[in-house]
Every structure is written in C-alpha cells, then in structure tokens.
Amino acid sequence: MTARALVLAAAVLAAPAAHAEPSDRTLVLTGLAMAPPTYLIGVSLHESSHALAAVVAGATVDQLHLFPPGRDPSTNTFRFGWTYVHGLRTRGDKLAFYIAPKITDAAVLGGFAALAFTGAWPHNRYGQLALTVFATGLWVDFSKDVVLFAPTNDVVKVFDLWCMTGWRQVPARLVYAGVVVGLGLVVARGYERTFDRSSTAPAGTPAQAARATLIVPLTLTTF
C-alpha cells in the first residue's frame, strides 16, 4: 500500500497544473482592449500595401500617414490613414496600387482560415482571441467598401479604371459581397473556436505523455 501511495503521489506531482479558463466576459473585455493596437496594425498594413505596390511599380511615395486618424488635407475628408504617390504610369500600375490592401487582407485572412479550420489553432484562449480580433479588423477593412461610393474610395477608383460606372458596378459589387460573406464565415469560425467551452485541453508535452504511460499501469499494480 505504501508503494502504491508513493506512485499515486508521484502521478499527481507529475501532472501539469490546471489553469482556469478565462470567462466569456473576460474575453470580451480583453478583446475590446485589443482593438486599438490591432487597429493601428491594420491601418499600417493597409497604407503600407499601397506604398509597396507603388514602389514595385517604380513610383515615388510622397506621403504615408498612419496615425493619428483625422482630416486628409488633400480631400478634406476624415480618413484613418492615407498614402500619396506619383509616377504610376499605366492603368495596371494604378489598379495594383488601389487594390493592394484588399489583396493583403484576403491573403492574411487566408492564413487565419488555415489556423481556424485545422488543428494548428492555438490552445491558449488569449492567443485565439488576439488572432480573431486581428482578423476582424482585416475583415472590416475588406468589407466596408461594398457599401461605400465616395469618389475617393479605393474600390470606386478601381471600378472607374475598369469603366464600370452606375449600374455596371452592380454585378461586381455582388461578387465582392459574396467574397465578404465567405471571409466573414472564416472570422466567425475564429470566434466559435475561441468561445467554445467543449474543446479539450492539449494532452501535454511528449515527456508528460510518456510519464503518464508509465505511471498509470503502476497505479493498477498490486504491491
């Protein structure tokens, strides 16, 4: 009996310590706190995508404004950030410049989907939350242009370059809306997995698994 008690005690000591899962309220409040820094990262990605596309096309970046948001002196409108360049020579260069942030959003959300729909999804709740909040910001940046019609809007400028004005934009906007819905489902999957309480904790490290394999049979042995 003494030997069995010692083995049971060793099993308890070897087992990884349990950590309380954060409540839904804690996750929501933490997510709200994560929004400002992820917003800044999102604006940086958006405007940097414009700038990178311009540089690749051989143009010159005149102004790259990331923070703070405010009134763009060139358009006299409120904007979260803005990028001005010169030297975009062809229509293809201009298309690439205006559409670059959407390509970045879609590419990063594709990577997020590869995590959210596979076993690569992190086990830590706060890690899951950080990824999902960041993905939400990218989705908002991608989707907002579906309902924006201002002449300064990137997607509107793309339509203008394609000579798609008035009702001619309707089919393209419907396709765009379909992509928005698809990416929205990807983000929703992230929230589903983040707030899912039925998911099991990871089994532990290989060393812990090996110890468990050795200890459990010993606890069942009569001494």
**SSE string, helices as H and strands as E:** HHEEEEHHHHH
Radius of gyration over C-alpha positions, nearest whole angstrom: 25 Å
Helical segment count: 7
Q: What is the spatial order of strands in the main beta sheet?
A: 1-4
Shape: globular
Total count of strands: 4
Helical percent range? Answer: 55-70%
Beta-strand fraction estimate: 5-15%
Structural class: mainly alpha
Summarize the structure.
With 223 residues, the chain is mainly α. 62% of the residues lie in helices and 8% in strands.
Describe this structure in words.
It contains 7 helices and 4 strands, in the order H-H-E-E-E-E-H-H-H-H-H. It is mainly alpha-helical. It folds into 2 domains: 1-16 and 204-223, no CATH class; 22-202, no CATH class. A two-stranded antiparallel sheet has the order 1-4. A hairpin with a 4-residue loop joins strand 2 (70-72) and strand 3. Helix 3 packs antiparallel against helix 4.
Which terms would index this structure?
single chain; 223 residues; mainly alpha; 2 domains; two-stranded antiparallel ribbon; 7 helices; 4 strands; disordered N terminus; disordered C terminus
